[in-house]
Every structure is written in structure tokens, then in C-alpha cells.
């Protein structure tokens, strides 16, 4: 009886010792392969300030370039570590581009053919230049955004163009992030 008890004790010790070694090995291997995580900034760190130049509007809808420029300046201030500078001479970088505005009918009334719902599409070609080094941080990158509206719901072109400009500004700020 004593031998059987001794065998059981050895088994328990062996299982405990073996499971401890396995647990230690798993613990040490843990997150060792996950070195892709970082707490570095998503944006280039050699830049402190940005001058937002008025975007050139290549379409006949006027005023959208003001909305986009304003939305972009506000989005840069809110979502990046950069400061917006009102003087081009004091800024580290300058962001500029061209904007194209289109309006499309999405749905129309069957009897009259009048558009029930329309869409404003904004497409921008963006440049971001480091004024200290002369390097182009963004070189002629195209980005687009859109928003729909319905005059039947008391929404107009200005409503949709403001929404589209805010969406486009968000996408431009995403372009400003460093490549992964």
C-alpha cells in the first residue's frame, strides 16, 4: 500500500513538474513574435507646422474650395500633432491641390423625370511639400469623397458639399500618415 502511495506521489510530482515547464515555455514565447506594435506617431515627426493653401477649383461650382480648405485645416489641427500656420514663410510644410466637383442624379421621379436624390462628388489631387528640404511628402495623390442629398428633405447642394468636403478632408489627413 505504501508503494502504491509513493507511486501516486511521484506521478503527481512528475505531472506538476512537466506542466510547470510547459507553462514556463509558453510564457516565455508569449508575444515575442508580435514586434509590429509601436507607440510611435503615425505622422512624420520632423514636421511641426503646416500651411494649408487654398485648393484650386477646376469646376464651375464655386465655394467648395473654401469649404475643403477650412475643413482640412480644422481636421489637421484636431487629428495630427501639427499646428496650422497662417504664414507660408513660417511653416515647415505646405499642403495644396486641385479639386473637381461633380453632381449626379441618383434617383428620379418616374412621371416628371425630376431628380429625387442627388450626389455631390469631390475629387482632389493633393501635394504636401516639406519647405525645409524640398521633399514632396505627398506627390499628386488622388482622393475622392461624396455625399448624397435630397431637395425633398430640404437638403441642398451646400449641405452635401459640406459633408463631402469634411469626408475628403479626413481622407487627406489619412494620406499624411507615415507608410506602415
Give an overview in words.
- The protein is an alpha/beta fold.
- The chain has a single domain, classed as 2-Layer Sandwich (Double Stranded RNA Binding Domain).
- The chain is 35% helix and 30% strand.
- It contains three helices and six strands.
- Strands 1, 2, 3, 4, 5 and 6 form a six-stranded mixed sheet that branches.
- A hairpin with a 6-residue loop joins β4 and β5.
- It is flat and about 95 Å long.
- The mean pLDDT is 84.
Question: What is the SS-derived class?
Answer: alpha/beta
Distance between the termini: 67 Å
Major β-sheet annotation: 6 strands, mixed
Mind telling me the CATH superfamily name? Lipoprotein like domain
Total domains: 1
Mean pLDDT: 84
Strand content: 25-35%
* Number of DSSP E strands: 6
If classified by CATH, what would the architecture be? 2-Layer Sandwich
**Count of DSSP-assigned helices:** 3
What does the overall shape look like?
flat
Radius of gyration: 29 Å
Helix content: 25-40%
Order of helices and strands: HEEHEEEEH
CATH class: Alpha Beta
CATH topology: Double Stranded RNA Binding Domain
List the uncertain runs.
Answer: none
List keywords for this structure.
single chain; 180 residues; alpha/beta; 35% helix; flat
